[in-house]
Amino acid sequence: MKILRLAAASAAVLLSLVAGVQAQTTLRIGLAEDPDILDPTLARTYVGRIVFASFCDKLFDIDEKLSIVPQLALSHETSADGKEVTIKLRPGVKFHDGEPFDAEAAKFSLDRHVTLPTSFRKPELAQLDHVDVVDPLTVKLVLKAPFSPLIAQLTDRAGMMVSPKAAKEAGDKFGLKPVCAGPYKFVERVQQDRIVFEKFADYWDKDKVAIDRIVYLPLVDATVRLANLKSGGLDLIERVLATDIKEVKADPKLRLSTAIELGYQGMTLNIGKDKAKGPLSQSAKVRQALDLAIDREAINQVVFNGEFKPGNQWINPDHPYYQKAFPVAARDIAKAKALLKEAGVTAPVSVDFMVPKGAETEAVAQVIQSMASEAGFEMKIRVTEFATSLKQAEAGEYQAYMLAWSGRIDPDGNSYVFLKTGAPQNYSAWSNPDADKALDDARLVTEQAQRKAIYEKLAKIALDEKPLLYIYHRRILIAHTTKLEGYKQMPDGLVRVIGLKLK
User: pTM of the entire structure?
Assistant: First the structure.
């Protein structure tokens, strides 16, 4: 009898342990690509931003109305001359390695963003001269000149804080095992397979964190992502195909969350690094001809069932900074051919057209290829894995490149890093002194009408020289199971995990 009782007790313990394991909740998120690097200073991909949202808190965040709200910061105050911004920090915050987040840590992260040789945050914080530690929970950002987009920049990767101890120890390998101060801490990453995080017990807002683990799974094929969502293999997927909207809405076990993005889908044209010196890089008239060959609304209807928004600028037509003086031009094949003739170019114009792998991007490229051929362009599509395409873009190993930008709340975030001479994401290698001046001047003023007038000058130059053809603005399409509660979609396209629950 004693043996039986012991066996029964052991079984009870075992069942209890199993129940405990079963009680663990895991949120499985399907990504359209594998992120580049999990280091906020060096990262530059949209999917990376989605992943960062779960583990790397920022000084500030945005809400549903795109208002800036505190996160690791509590408040900020700008001096009368606009050259000093004092930021009060949240007390009691810890990094995932147990190190305290304080003014010294904030200074370290900001300095790292600005000084690391390979940093992609430098243009975003270009006016930052130095950071002073005022007291343990206060930093003062001293600027070279007034910088109106500063706080907006600190709502994204430029505002992400990393553990000084971990960053110093890891050096340039920090992205392999990142340590931040977000709701989840890094567990493991297997390239092209999975990225795993687990709940951080000492998170400053831990009462709002209900899910135990998050697993990000890169699945390039949108059809495969949706199939996995429907079968229960995933709980949420990003970038649902517009053509699959009806299928998602018809499934009682699924929900669709949408918003028009802050960014754009465009075609970057290699001007300054084109080794072949093709007509596209040598003549603005040739680039204008290619632009006139594209029917943006037709692309929207054919590929996206009319769900997206055609555009021709770095912000969408509903944005307060959109320049209505330069509306989307109608397709004009006759004018396109005339421009090629004026440029002294004989058709067909051969173009190496690099396209990141993905159903929608490839579909758009094929439509552009067909449209452009009517104007005298031979667009030679070269489908490339996304991370590889970025490296080739940096090296100038392309002539036209389909590249999306997820967007920022301030127009500076959609323009400066791509159009400023020498900016790290100016893949076009375009350089125009008047455009540079407009980009810099727009950073000096806060009043909207003044800034908009400056951006009008920039728009006139960029839309004439066309280093980048802006084509459309995507509708963010996120699908998730009805078992997931509390999900809200915002126009920045990020997947925020705070407040989510799995039934």
Answer: 0.84
